[in-house]
Amino acid sequence: MEIKKIETNLKRNLRLHSSKVKFMPNSRRIENQIIRVNPDITFQEILGFGGALTQSACYVLSTIRKELSDEILDEYFSKDKLNYQFARISIGSCDFSLNSYSYSYKNDLSDFNINNDLKYVIPIIKTVQNRNMGLQIISSPWSPPKFMKDNNSLVMGGKLLSKYKKLWANYLVKYVQSYKSYGIPISYMTIQNEPNAKQLWESCLYSATEEADLLKNYLFPTFKEHGLKTKFLIWDHNKDIVLERGIETLIDNNCLDYASGIAFHWYTGGHFESLSKLRDLFPKHLLLHTEGCTGYSHFKPQDELFNCEMYANEIIEDFNHGVNAFIDWNIVLNYKRWTKPYQKLL
User: Fold this and answer.
1) In whole angstroms, what is the distance from residue 85 CA to residue 77 CA?
2) pLDDT tens per residue, the chain (346 residues)?
3) 99: phi > 0 → left, psi -120 to 50 → alpha, else beta; which?
4) Fewer CB atoms < 10 Å away: N or C end of the chain?
5) Could you tell me which of 154, 165, 245, 167 has the C-alpha nearest to residue 204?
6) Do 233 and 205 touch, CB atoms closer than 8 A?
C-alpha cells in the first residue's frame, strides 16, 4: 500500500512537503515500523474541518484582489485542497464585525432584515458554495438585540429577559428563513457564543438551567413549528468546565432530546479527559470544536513553530478523544487593522 505524506517541519524547512511512503505486509516483529489497522474497531464519525466567515474575514476577502481571494477560498474549501466542510458565522454582529448591529430593533420584529450581511458575508458564502455545495453552516448568536436584554446593551454580558424568550426564538426563526431564501441552509445553531463570559464586545450570559429552558421550551418547539431542520448545540465555550456544563444541561435539566451535540472552544487548555468522558456519557451526541486560534495574548507571532505545535496537538488530541469536527476561528484577517474601537484596547 502506498500513502501520501504531507509534512510541515520548520526545523527542516519543510512546509506542506509532499512525499510517498510504501507500506507492505510484514511478518517480522519490528514494532517501531508497524502500523496496525483493525477494521473491526470503530470510533466516532469524523465530519470534517471548517473555519469562521466573520464579517471581518468576509470584508478582507471581498476587498483584496479577486485572484488572491479566489486562491484563499480554493485552499480552504476546494475538494483537492483542505476541503473544509463547515463555516461558522455570527447571528448579528460579533467581536469581528465592522460595526455592532442587530437584525431588528422593534419588539414586533416588523423591521427584521439581514441587510448587514448582504454586502460581504452572504456573497462570500455563495462563492464558497460554488466550491463545496455540501458546505454546512454553524450559526452562533453573540447577543440578542439590546431591547431584549436586562442591561439594554449588546455588550458587557447581560441576560435575555424572560418576557422576550419567545420573541428571541421567533427572531432566530426569521434569521434561518432569511438565509434559506438566499440558498444558504443553517445546519447547526449554538444557543449562545461563550455564555459564561461578560465581554467588552457582544455577549450574553446563560446558566445551564437558563440555556436548557431556552432550548427545550422556546427554540426547539418554535423551530419545529416552522418546519426548520436546524440542529442545536449547547455550551459553545471553553473546555475547562465542558463536562460539568454538559451534564448539568443535558441530564440535570432534561435536554438530551433537544440538543444534537456540545460545542466547545480551546482557550483554557487541553482538558482532553473531559472530552472522553462526554463521548462515553453521550455517545449519540456530537462533539464539535467550534472556535480556537493562536492570535491572542497568550501567543506571540514570532513563536511560529511553538504556536503550530500547540494547535496541531489540540487538533490531534481532540479527535483522539471523541470529537467529530474541528472548526477554526477567522480564516483570514487584516492583522494590521482590527475593526472596532474597543479592539485597540486588547
Assistant:
1) 7
2) 788 888 888 788 888 889 998 877 766 666 666 777 788 999 999 999 999 999 999 999 999 999 999 999 999 999 999 999 999 999 999 999 999 999 999 999 999 999 999 999 999 999 999 999 999 999 999 999 999 999 999 999 999 999 999 999 999 999 999 999 999 999 999 999 999 999 999 999 999 999 999 999 999 999 999 999 999 999 999 999 999 999 999 999 999 999 999 999 999 989 999 999 999 999 999 999 999 998 776 777 778 778 888 899 999 999 999 999 999 999 999 877 655 544 443 3
3) beta
4) N
5) 154
6) no
Cα 282 to its chain centre, rounded Å, is 20
- Give a three-class secondary structure readout of 138-152: EEEECCCCHHHECCC
> Any idea which residue has 448582504 for its cell?
118
CA atoms within 13 A on the CB side of 51: 20
Domain count, the chain: 1
What cell numbers appear for 42 in the block?
Answer: 470503530
Nearest to 132 by CA among 60, 66, 90, 73: 73
Q: How far apart are CA 10 and CA 235, in angstroms?
A: 36
Q: 19 near 5, Cβ under 8 Å?
A: yes
Can you read off the three cell numbers belonging to residue 12?
A: 527542516
- CA 111 – CA 104 distance, rounded (Å): 6
Residue 61 CB neighbours (<10 A): 22
Residues 6+ apart with CB under 8 A from 274: 239, 242, 243
- Residues with Cβ within 8 Å of 334's Cβ and at least 6 positions away in sequence, in order, are 56, 60
**Phi and psi at residue 296, in whole multiples of 5°?**
-145, -175
The residues with which 140 forms a beta bridge, in sequence order, are 90
Instruction: Tell me the three state secondary structure of residue 7.
Output: strand
Nearby residues of 218 by Cβ (< 8 Å), 6 or more positions away = 165, 166, 168, 169
User: Can you give the CATH number for the domain in which 109 is found?
Assistant: 3.20.20.80
- Quick check: 135 and 128 in contact, CB under 8 A? yes
